[in-house]
């Protein structure tokens, strides 16, 4: 049994929103084809080893950094804070927790100034920053926007072995839990948590961790997401559509999961709901409710439960995994031991794919 | 080896379009909930044992008849012909083929006048009619249309053991083949054929037959189809979503397959293409092309290949099945013996669901 | 009073559909920016003086030809016929009417073979052809399709001084009238007529003629049309949006009217309805019904009533105009003498723009 | 010249978001038809004289109250605050400003507990509350949602004679200005300001005031808004569509303005952008830019500039109007003295409607 992460006495940094992801890719050109040619992200700046990308409604320098490297991994999950002073809070908060903390006045990547990176108690490389270069916001530039235009970075999704332990730490950091998946015994399989008033800035998904499950970009309408699927078919990369499109139960958003050339998972997401009221109710889903992950009851593919991206420590080395010991969502819902239901009280084994499993 | 159906010397009836389906259901009230409350079809008329339904852009009396009966089955696939005289052509055409032919001046169902029913050489109960009651076309009645409004009956899809034999007969009847699925050895797995200038009025799908694979209604936009999925989730009948939503390769239409309370399959369909030019090119798909059935490469569920509705003869008795002896699409593409590819030349076993199969 | 155009004894050519428009433009480069860069039409072929364009679901060589010339005009409205022999019918039909007829085995434009051009009794340059070069149908090429992708050529709309006279001639030519606008006195202001089973292949709009009111391309969904508006805003050419977007009363289609650099009017159009049944009912609208032209009651701008493109005779000279002597729709519905109503029985002067007029 | 409203020393109440509008209507049954039958708002509760309504993603008791009364007017613009204690801040803040302040532990309307109402320095009746009854959030209830489903209350829009004076006061109250419309001389015609991280919770529009210009509800997608237009056509109330649908320049949202039976203006709105970053840039538009109000350059109808709803003081009496003395947007952009441009540098008089004006 793991012990709880203590709550620091130092105040948490005031986080505005999830802001960018730094991703290590093994073939920068292939990744460029995926993120720029296929998904239509806009190149703010590029060097021999890095590409800085943004969506059409981002007005800071980037919300995705691709960096050439030896193995696919996540180098940083970056949050924007409310003022420059919040970086001091971040330093104090994590120092008190005994975490490794590094601060660079000139930033860790281009476009960003003073920044703090930590390896947080869950093992993830987290960055906090306020100073950032502004660039043209392409909101009104419909002449540049493709049929599958991406508007914003919406959230991260992290894999951790112990979801309640991770969620408790995130609440200490100032997040609020908006939805979760549980079973009758109290096992928590996943939890969604937010700073901005949407369903999440990040989620904690149960599994061997720390790993990144996915990064999600928001589109405006459902047809934008369908257009990405159609384009992937036309480019004959439909085998990189992993799951969806569909409607989530959790979050109520319309979604699609696709895989980049290194297997990093990207979600395209639209239309979750307002959570900004102080008494926004927590929505809890039963892990056996077959509409929790897909409102239309379409099956979650096994890879979606098992695969995720390694994360790096501040030296750039992959962080070793801790195994999940709690019950696993895939096992309790799919296959020989699992069941899920469409209507509470019904029992349906191997839902919809039954005979294949 | 079955022998070819001869080409009659009598001219074929001039068919305008597929017009309505008569369906036997075992619980009329449950079926009403599905077709009226859930799908939003409009009731033109109903009796104790029958419900006459139509879509919002149909101006004849009905395009779906539900009739209470002892076993789920299809009582008639009805086509509208260009003039009253075409019924004489239908009689002569099928009489020459040795088929049982029945003509009723007063029609076989309400709303329809003079009509001919035959059990065609493929075993299906087919109706031809011209005379029909006109009703209010609800095209402009947006006050009545739900978010998933259905506009038109689009097509039938029939299961037959020998696709080329069936297709040849349909061509004799005046249909044109628009697309098909074949393999390198020349086996034909399915063929689409049309009278109206869309991809099809009906299709022939290889399998034990005669059976009806599905009936399809057209919606205007993709979001209308997604709205039906969302509604089925809200009503907790998502287990009746069998396949999709998705984009077809064949036809290029956006689709959804759902199952009514008796297991009759209904497709909701939108946005195929114009085929009305006299030299409209036949589009042939390789059975191993994993985008032929779903452009996004999402797997076809086994039930979609195996299940279909029995059809009745003119006495109302189920027509016995003839087994398919040619290779079966499911077997050559899914599971232990099958393979399909995203990019020609690649070999991928048990595509996307691999580890589960 | 003009006399009726006689009905030829010769059979009319069997027309499949409206197929392409040849347009004379005064600055080919500017027109290319409009049709290719802005609207996204695909260039099949281009020469110094001509550009051959097509939409994404056209499989013949082109459905729009731009030709550099001294004055903006329409050189041909082209229809595809059902077989090569139909050209003989076209020659006989128009010869009997005393029209000038020209036939060229090698075609009048690239991509087309044997073709007949006539100056029809209404004064329009009409082409008939069967032989045509096939090109790649880009239906499935979602990698090439912009957010405002155009799928098909849908219809022409012609301005004529005497609508019933023109409609009668078109019926002789094999067209069926699907909708019209009339007043209580029997004046006909416009009529829609079709060969293919949509609301129209062409329409006759009352005004000084012969002129072309517009050519219309079909998109799949309403958001595709909105995307064109958004792009025109981004390119700062919103002053070329003449009318709409909106929902038509007539045809029930969603529409947008924009103006090319020479003032040729282009409609983008989606989702009219099936008219292919032999007894498809004629829909008649009252000219004073303010929802006939825009279902939402938004005002028709005056230029839409008054402006149209000159047409050329077979020598390439502009055809002189004949003045409309019947009542004019703009005058009876807008401004000092006009009125229109939202609800029959109400009288509303200068509807919605009242105080400005 | 009016004097500035002083900045109180007392801290402003911490406002979460605009939360509900209380509207006085003269025929409750007619208003019910408009808001419930036409727009599809959900009735939480109703009495003989009041109807409490909410959108599908609202989880508090209501976001619109209709109250029967003698003259059409606005009784309260209500904001939700972050905690019960913020009501004390509201009392202190407005007391210091010399405003009339009223507090009721039991609330002013059903469903709300402890609340403070003030007549603010701009003359508007403003309510602050925290305590509120929770009701079922209908987010997932797709079985109840019509094609034009409304998701959230998005914003208010207020008419004030002196926009900079009003904006300064709102900034004192903790709002941030996101966009405005100015001219080269520095006249400010309108300003948008927010608490939640969207473009606005309210806007100040220049004109004789205090009046309410409109209340806006958010839909998810553009087609939802078009569905409302289509339905208004079908119900023959298209004359209550005042302006749009269209794309705003300011806010980049897709919009529609309609009028309720009393002439209260309702906007339906979707897809503005994230403004929650602390350094979110102010976007300023030139009043002569013809795309500022409608990105597609469609004309703003005069009534949209001139008409607005009276507001009531805390005794329920209409607040007298103060005339705007600054230049008026309608006059500087439309008609004899006005001009606007599509491309900076061009001069276009009476844009698009020129000849009519």
TrEMBL record, chains A, B, C, D:
**Which intervals hold domain VOC?**
17-131, 152-271
Q: Which cofactor does it need?
A: Fe(2+)
Q: According to the lineage, what is the superkingdom?
A: Bacteria
Per the UniProt entry, the Enzyme Commission number(s) are 1.13.11.15
Q: Which SUPFAM superfamilies match?
A: Glyoxalase/Bleomycin resistance protein/Dihydroxybiphenyl dioxygenase
Instruction: Write out the GO MF terms.
Output: 3,4-dihydroxyphenylacetate 2,3-dioxygenase activity
> Which UniProt keywords are given for this protein, alphabetically ordered?
Aromatic hydrocarbons catabolism, Dioxygenase, Iron, Metal-binding, Oxidoreductase
- Pfam families attached to this UniProt entry: Glyoxalase
PANTHER family hit by this protein: FOSFOMYCIN RESISTANCE PROTEIN FOSX, LYASE, PUTATIVE-RELATED-RELATED
Q: Which family does it belong to?
A: Belongs to the extradiol ring-cleavage dioxygenase family.
Protein name listed in UniProt:
3,4-dihydroxyphenylacetate 2,3-dioxygenase
- Organism of origin: Nonomuraea bangladeshensis
Q: Tell me what gene encodes this.
A: hpaD
